[in-house]
Write a structure and sequence with these properties.
- This protein is mainly α.
- The chain has helices at residues 2-13, 16-20, 27-45, 51-64, 84-91, 118-127, 131-142, 146-150, 154-160, 163-174, 187-194, 201-211, 216-228, 230-241, 244-247, 259-276, 281-296, 300-323, 328-331, 334-364, 383-395, 402-427; strands spanning 76-81, 101-104, 107-114.
- It has three domains: 2-71, no CATH class; 76-114, no CATH class; 120-427, no CATH class.
- The chain contains 22 helices and three strands.
- It has a three-stranded antiparallel beta sheet, with no helix packed on it.
- The mean pLDDT is 89.
């Protein structure tokens, strides 16, 4: 009977449960992260907040914080000294192991290689900047640039919405002046935090993986969380900065855009942006290639694959591996809380920047531009445009701002990629 209980005790001690409930060694941190993962899954499933990305991110966070799961373990390669028995067999030519043996100053070692966890290998697509550009390829295939081409002034609104990125960068750097290490960020870290303001998850991941990979977990979670919370965060800011009269403006119908214009647009943008900012080539190039697939009409099969099968596969890989970077030891810190707060500031300032420029356009055009469309200048496509439509319709049920808002929304996608290119050029 004693042997049975010893076996049970040994099984318990070797299990993840023992580590999880060992609060003295930090098991409580894992429990907190598991709770956070469950909250995110609730938001994805019940509230449907950006579920395509929030759900795999949350599940990746859950997996990595289960003790002993090993899903993010990196491969190991070490030398182990042969035991006297193994050495005897080796010298006698009877060593039947498949491991290579090395003689180092008369001491024999065999090479021990242990493979890494599944998510560690999938994570290399994030680490080497592969997944985000492929996401942009799918976005390009799914997005109609017609509203932007029809109303080029939308570029200005998309640019204004990037204001939060640069203001937050200087704010994050200013914290370093305090001399407190816990709230100090170097230029690369500040740039990675600031890009959250673009509300563009793939761009945030791409830039952070290049500049500050140690912060990838909290930045990715913050970026996608704010993307998911666009319908909650933006409306109060929009209403606070505009009057009822401004929100009620009905805009004129956009002019039709020819097929030739739609084909020339991605080519022109690629030439201008990549020549101006070569570091933005992976994001801009893939975005415009996807749009060219869509508009050319000659590669329908490629277009459908990029926006469906490929997009879905990359979304799964990207989401679950990004979530797996949020382990308890690195995520639960004051710096993480500060990053999330700074990200919220960046996003809020970006929204405000777009709305304020919309107010300027309202005044300049004599009331022909509804300032609400400026809030869509952040890169959350098409959610931000839908929010502009929803807020506008509350004031005027007959108002349809969606297509007008898509112009700044698409411009915001390009703008955030350009902003990332600028930051990468400066600090990469």
């Amino acid at each position: 009977m004693g042997g049975f209980w010893e076996a049970i005790q040994g099984l318990w001690n070797d299990s993840g449960f023992a580590r999880l409930f060992n609060f003295a060694e930090g098991g409580w941190k894992n429990l907190v992260m598991i709770a956070i993962a469950c909250v995110l899954m609730y938001l994805a499933i019940k509230k449907q907040f950006e579920p395509l990305l929030l759900l795999p991110i949350a599940f990746g966070m859950l997996l990595v914080n289960l003790p002993l799961s090993g899903v993010m373990n990196s491969p190991t390669n070490s030398l182990v000294a042969l035991s006297p028995e193994e050495l005897q067999h080796f010298l006698a030519g009877q060593y039947d192991q498949n491991y290579p043996v090395f003689d180092m100053n008369g001491v024999y070692y065999w090479q021990h290689f242990e493979t890494g966890g599944l998510l560690w290998y999938l994570y290399q697509g994030v680490k080497f900047g592969i997944y985000p550009p492929l996401i942009f390829l799918g976005i390009g295939c799914m997005t109609d640039f017609g509203p932007l081409i029809s109303n080029p002034k939308s570029f200005l609104l998309g640019a204004a919405a990037q204001l939060g990125i640069f203001i937050t960068y200087f704010g994050a750097r200013a914290l370093s002046l305090t001399g407190i290490e816990a709230i100090s960020f170097n230029a690369q870290e500040a740039a990675s935090i600031a890009i959250i303001g673009g509300a563009d998850g793939p761009t945030a991941i791409y830039l952070t993986s290049k500049l500050a990979p140690d912060l990838l977990g909290p930045i990715a979670v913050a970026a996608y969380s704010y993307m998911a919370l666009v319908p909650i965060i933006q409306p109060p800011i929009m209403r606070a900065l505009t009057t009822k009269k401004e929100r009620s403006v009905v805009m004129e119908q956009l002019r039709p855009v020819s097929k030739t214009e739609k084909i020339l647009f991605p080519i022109s943008v690629t030439l201008i942006c990549v020549l101006l900012l070569p570091s933005a080539a992976p994001l801009i190039g893939m975005l415009m290639l996807g749009n060219l697939f869509r508009e050319s009409g000659v590669v329908e099969r490629l277009s459908k694959t990029a926006q469906n099968e490929l997009m879905n596969i990359i979304t799964i890989f990207l989401g679950i591996t990004v979530g797996a970077t949020a382990n308890a030891n690195t995520f639960l810190s004051f710096r993480t809380v500060l990053i999330i707060v700074l990200g919220l500031i960046a996003f809020s300032v970006g929204t405000a920047g777009g709305v304020l420029l919309g107010k300027v356009m309202y005044a300049v055009t004599g009331g022909k531009v509804n300032p609400l469309i400026g809030s869509a200048g952040v890169s959350a496509v098409p959610m931000a445009a839908r929010v502009s439509q929803k807020v506008g319709q509350k004031e005027n049920p007959g108002n349809f701002l969606l297509m007008h808002a898509m112009g700044p929304n698409v411009a915001g996608v390009i703008g955030s990629a350009v902003a990332a290119g600028v930051l990468l050029s400066l600090f990469g």
